[in-house]
Write a structure and sequence with these properties.
220 residues; alpha+beta; seven-stranded antiparallel sheet; three-stranded antiparallel sheet; disordered N terminus
Length: 220
């Protein structure tokens, strides 16, 4: 009996240690996701972005409100048009090449996941994005890494993506709105630009800190 209790205690401590450091980030009133640690929050180009980076890659989550840009009504074709527009804008702003595109489902809702590559030598060249249109809001989750880290970073990416939970009241959930395909393209473009600015700002900050620390270590 004592051995069983000890085993349960060890498993409990291990579980707590594994979860320690994860940060539960809410995304408006529609969703929440777990970052490896507390993310930074940046407002740029009208986007409210939560982001974090470690040796595996760059993690980002955000959402955009399209309430004022959309009408009412729903059809599967219109929902596909929304996603196609958002994906098109994402690829356009990054000059990316689409590797794969597939639907995914969460709590009975349909979203899309894409994998694409870019040739920008200053930024991660392998990128993954999940998007979900819900209640006139586009929710997006990104993970950027490098091609040579694809397999090594896969557990971190899947853990991040799979931690996404929908928190919106089930009775209020609605997907689709009419005639916003073009708006979705523009949104995808803007979101892509905002993410690039966030990443570049982080790179610049690292360089500045490196220079400052190097100068401090120089003998007077």
């Amino acid at each position: 009996m004592t051995k069983k209790i000890f085993t349960i205690f060890v498993l409990f401590i291990a579980l707590c240690s594994f979860r320690k450091g994860f940060f539960h980030q809410t995304l408006g009133d529609i969703a929440a996701i777990d970052f490896p640690d507390k993310p930074q929050t940046t407002d740029t180009l009208g986007q409210h972005l939560h982001h974090y980076s470690d040796s595996s890659g760059f993690y980002l989550a955000g959402f955009a409100d399209l309430t004022t840009k959309s009408g009412a009504g729903f059809s599967q074709n219109e929902l596909d048009s929304i996603y196609s527009g958002f994906i098109g804008g994402t690829l356009n702003t990054s000059k990316g090449e689409l590797v794969s595109k597939k639907p995914y489902h969460i709590d009975g809702l349909q979203g899309y996941e894409i994998k694409y590559v870019t040739n920008n030598p200053n930024l991660s060249n392998l990128r993954f994005k999940r998007m979900l249109f819900l209640n006139n809001q586009m929710l997006y989750v990104d993970f950027w890494t490098d091609k040579d880290k694809d397999e090594r970073s896969k557990p971190a990416r899947e853990r991040f993506f799979n931690s996404l939970k929908i928190t919106a009241n089930k009775a209020s959930r609605q997907q689709g709105a009419s005639e916003i395909g073009n708006v979705a393209f523009g949104l995808g473009y803007i979101v892509g630009q905002a993410i690039v600015w966030v990443v570049l700002a982080g790179v610049i900050l690292v360089v500045i800190l490196f220079i400052v620390n190097r100068n401090k270590r120089r003998p007077m």
